Amino acid sequence: xxxxxxxxxxxxLVPEAVKDAYLVHxxxxxxxxxxxxxxxxxxxxxxxxxxxxxxLRKYKFPSVALHSMMKQKQRFAALAKFKSSIFKILIAxxxxxxxxxxxAVQVVINHNTPGLPKIYIHRVGRTARAGRKGMAITLVxxxxxxxxxxxxEEIKLKLKEFSVEEQLVLDILTQVNVTxxxxxxxxxxMDFDEKKEINKRKQMILEGKDPDLEAKRKAELAKIKxxxxxxxxxxxxxxxxxx
Length: 243
Known about the structure:
By secondary structure, the chain is of the alpha/beta class.
């Protein structure tokens, strides 16, 4: 077993398009029932992390973001606010949360199902520490079932379903989707993607790589992959015609 017994591990099956409404509902439920609980929400990308934080803040939730696009000073400040309980909700990417040691976290929510079991184990390991109880809830879409099976096989445990009142989610669905889009537009105005690309180029230069050469190699590799895929499809079509 790769996870501790004190950890209650659940999943919530949600349609991809309405995932954020379920997240807001979960956060609201925990805030209403356990105002003093600390929650970590894991996301797949820096952009998702930033958008979700902006969105939750619009709903007046005490949240703070932690991702690699933030300057080190900002990351330290965000962590300090979460550790000191000024903010009860931390939204983080896997890279930014690496090595985090925060003893009193009651809930971990996986906004996306991790692609690898070891990432899942690392994420949920942020709660139920030092003998304390904790809960981990993973939002699972119709495209993630195989990932859940891989996780269950690794941890030798079946995840239990977490039940919610669907009508309460439906009641906030439209508003959450509108708020998400507003936050995305606001983020686009901050040139977030452009800054990410600049940071990426800087990192490559620090590693002794030529960004333009790397981009060229990537494009060539994509062409080869596309060509190979087309060849496989032609072979498949030929075989099917012969049947």
